[in-house]
Design goal:
Layout: E1 8-10, E2 13-15, H1 17-21, H2 23-40, H3 53-71, H4 85-109
Antiparallel strand pairs: 1-2
Length: 115
C-alpha cells in the first residue's frame, strides 16, 4: 500500500515532497533570498570589527552568490563548455574557490547576520 505524500508543516512553512527531497536546494534558496534582503536593508547590521562596510558588503554578496548557485544545482560547473583541457581546469578551480569562499564566509559570519 502506497502512502499518500503529504505536505508537512515546520514552523508555519509548507514543505512539498520535492522540497523535502531536495532540501539543500530549498534551504539554499531561502537563505540566499534572506541574506540578499538583509544586505539591501538601509540599516543592516554594522560590519564586523575587522571589516570595512565595503568588505562586509562583498562578504554578503559572496554568501548570496554561493547559496544562489547551490539552489540552482551548481550550474557554474557546467558553463565552461568543453570539459577537457587546461582552460576548463582553471575555470573549474576558480569556480570551486569562489564557492568555498562563500561557504566559509557564511560559517564565519553566521552570528553577525542580524539587525
Amino acid at each position: 500500500m502506497r502512502r499518500k505524500r503529504e505536505i508537512k508543516y515546520a514552523k508555519g512553512r509548507k514543505w512539498s515532497y520535492y522540497e523535502a527531497f531536495f532540501l539543500r536546494r530549498a534551504l539554499a534558496k531561502d537563505i540566499a533570498s534572506g541574506v540578499e534582503h538583509f544586505r539591501t536593508m538601509t540599516r543592516y547590521a554594522m560590519a564586523p570589527g575587522e571589516l570595512t562596510e565595503e568588505e562586509w558588503d562583498q562578504v554578503l554578496k559572496d554568501i548570496v552568490w554561493f547559496f544562489t548557485e547551490a539552489a540552482q544545482g551548481y550550474p557554474g560547473i557546467y558553463r565552461a563548455g568543453s570539459y577537457e583541457g587546461e582552460e576548463y581546469k582553471k575555470q573549474r578551480a576558480a569556480y570551486e574557490a569562489r564557492m568555498e569562499r562563500g561557504k566559509e564566509a557564511f560559517v564565519k559570519y553566521f552570528d553577525t547576520l542580524w539587525d
